[in-house]
From TrEMBL, chain A:
<comment type="similarity">
    <text>Belongs to the EMC2 family.</text>
</comment>
<keyword id="KW-0677">Repeat</keyword>
<dbReference type="Pfam" id="PF22890">
    <property type="entry name" value="TPR_EMC2"/>
</dbReference>
<keyword id="KW-0802">TPR repeat</keyword>
<dbReference type="InterPro" id="IPR055217">
    <property type="entry name" value="TPR_EMC2"/>
</dbReference>
<dbReference type="InterPro" id="IPR019734">
    <property type="entry name" value="TPR_rpt"/>
</dbReference>
<comment type="subunit">
    <text>Component of the ER membrane protein complex (EMC).</text>
</comment>
<comment type="function">
    <text>Part of the endoplasmic reticulum membrane protein complex (EMC) that enables the energy-independent insertion into endoplasmic reticulum membranes of newly synthesized membrane proteins.</text>
</comment>
<dbReference type="InterPro" id="IPR039856">
    <property type="entry name" value="EMC2-like"/>
</dbReference>
TrEMBL record, chain B:
<dbReference type="GO" id="GO:0072546">
    <property type="term" value="C:EMC complex"/>
</dbReference>
<keyword id="KW-0812">Transmembrane</keyword>
<dbReference type="InterPro" id="IPR002809">
    <property type="entry name" value="EMC3/TMCO1"/>
</dbReference>
<feature type="transmembrane region" description="Helical">
    <location>
        <begin position="183"/>
        <end position="201"/>
    </location>
</feature>
<keyword id="KW-0472">Membrane</keyword>
<dbReference type="GO" id="GO:0034975">
    <property type="term" value="P:protein folding in endoplasmic reticulum"/>
</dbReference>
<feature type="transmembrane region" description="Helical">
    <location>
        <begin position="16"/>
        <end position="39"/>
    </location>
</feature>
<dbReference type="InterPro" id="IPR008568">
    <property type="entry name" value="EMC3"/>
</dbReference>
<comment type="function">
    <text>The EMC seems to be required for efficient folding of proteins in the endoplasmic reticulum (ER).</text>
</comment>
Amino acid sequence: MRLSSFAPPMSLSSALEKLATFRANNTRASQETFQAASVILKSAQKLGDDGWAVLEQLFLASVDIGRLDVADQCLKQLAERFPDSPRVDVLTGIRMESSEPPDVVLQYYAQILDADSANAAIWKRRISVLRRTGKIEKAVEELSQLLDTFYTDVDGWLELADIYTSCNQYILALQALSHALLLAPQNPFYVLQFAETAYTAGDLPLALKTFLVAVDMCERDLDSPEEKPAVGISVRAWLGVKLCSRRLMSNSSPSASNTAIPKSLNLIEELATERVLSAYSKGAGKVPQGKDVVVGWIGAR
Amino acid sequence: MSSSASLYLDPQIRDWVLFPITLVMILVGILRHYVVILLQSPPKNLPREAVREQRALTRSQVLRSTCAKSPIPPTYYKSISRHLSDAFEAGTYLKDGPPREGDAPKGPPNPMSDPAAMDGMMAGMKTQMVMMVPQMVIMGWINFFFQGFVLIKLPFPLTLGFKSMLQRGIETQDMDVRWVSSLSWYFLNFFGLNGLYRLILGGDNSADSSRDMTASPFGANPAAPGGAQDFGKLFKAERDNLEFSEGLYSWVGEGVEDRVLRRYGLST
C-alpha cells in the first residue's frame, strides 16, 4: 500500500489531534483527513474507542476522494467490530452509493426501513439518493414525512428549502425556512437566507425587514457600529437592505405576507448606502476587491 | 466499668464471618451488575407513527418558546399555529390516526393489553428478580449460620437509639450499642456499598440493590416507550397553550428599522 507517500510525516498524536478537531467541527477536509488518518489506519485497533471514530472518519474521507480500496478496509474492520450497528449500515449504504446503481442502493435502504421504519439516518440517505437521481417529487414527499416525524431536524428543513428553491417554489421554501428559523432563532445565516429567499419571491417589504433583522443580530454586541466598517455577513445583509430599499423607493410593490413598508425608508436607504461604501473603503493603500462594481451599482439609480 | 470492656471477640469471627459476609456482598453486587447488563433487552425500535406521536408536542413547544420575539413574520406564525391547533384537535398526530365517528371514547390504556407496556414491565420484573433472589439467599445464609453473632465493635460511641439498628437478632438489654450483630452488618452493607460499587464499576452501575427497593416494577421508567400517556388529552391541552402564545406573539422584525436607526443615532 502506498498510503502516505505524499503526506508529510506526521506524528501520531498530532494527527489524532487534527482528526479530533475535524470531527468536532464537522469539517469536510477529505484530503487532509485522508492523509492524517492513513498514518493511524494500521494502529486503529490499538487506539481503543477513539480508533473507531477515526476509522469512520477515514472511511468517509476516502469515499469522498475516491479511494474505495481504503474505504473497503475501514468498512470491513468496522463491520467486524460492530455487527448489526445502524451506524455501520449507513456507512455500508454510503459505500454502495459510490459504486452501485441507485436502484440497488434504494432497495437496500428500503429493506432497512422496512425493519425499522423510524431510522432517521437511513431515511435521510434515501432522500438524498432520490434527490440526486432526479426524483424530486418523491424526495420532497419523503422529506416532508421525515420532518413531520422528526421536527427538530434543522438540516432537514434547510434541505427542503433548498429543494423548493431549486424548483422555483420560493413561497414553499420560505415556509420551510421559517421552521428552520424557529428551531435555530440565534443563527443569523438562516435569517439572511430567509431574507434572500423572500427577495427572490418578490416579497420586498418582508425581505427588507428580515435583512434588517440580520443586521440587527450581527451588530447587536457592537458598542458604536458606525465607527467600524461592516464585516462578515453583515456586509451582505446591508447590501440586501440597500437593494430592497432602493427598489421599494422607486415603486412600492405589494407584499404577499402583508408586511408594512417602513416609514423611515429614506433614512434606511441612506444608512445602507453609507454602510456598504464603508465596508468597501477600508484597508490602507489596498483597494478592496470589487469596489468599482459596488460604487458603480450604488451610483446607478 | 461497662460490660463492653469484658467482651472479647475471637479473631476467627473476624476472619471467617465478618470478611466473608462483606466479600460475598460485594461480589454479589458486581455479579448482579453484569447479569443486569446481560438481561437488558436492546431498546425497542418504535415505528414511525409512534415516534411522530411522541414528538408532536415538541413542534408546538418550539413554536411557543420564542413567541414573545418570534423570528418568523406574523402570517407564517399564524399559519403554523393554526395548523398545529387544528391537527391537535383532529388528532392527526395520534399513532392510530384521527379517531373516527362512532368510536367509543377510550379510557386510559390498560398496560396489560398493550404488548409494549408489558415488555417494559417484564424488564423491570427481571431486574427485580436478579436483585431479590441473591439478597434473600444471603440473608438466609447469615440467619442460618451466624445468627446472634457479634461481629465488630464500632470505634465511636452511639446513643441507645441505634440499638435496634445495630443489634438486630440479639435480644440483650444491656450490651453496649457499639457492638454490631451479623444481621445488622448485613443491612449496613446492603445500604452502604453503593459508594464502593461506584468506585469499582463506574457511575451508572446496577449493582446497588437498595435503590430498587423503592421502585415498583409497574411504575418503572415513566419515559418507557408505550407508557400509559394519553396523547389525545395532552394534545387538547396543548391547544390552549398555543392560543395563549398567539396572544403573546410579536415578530422580532417589528420596529427593527427604528432599532437599527437608533443604534446609528439616526432616530426619527
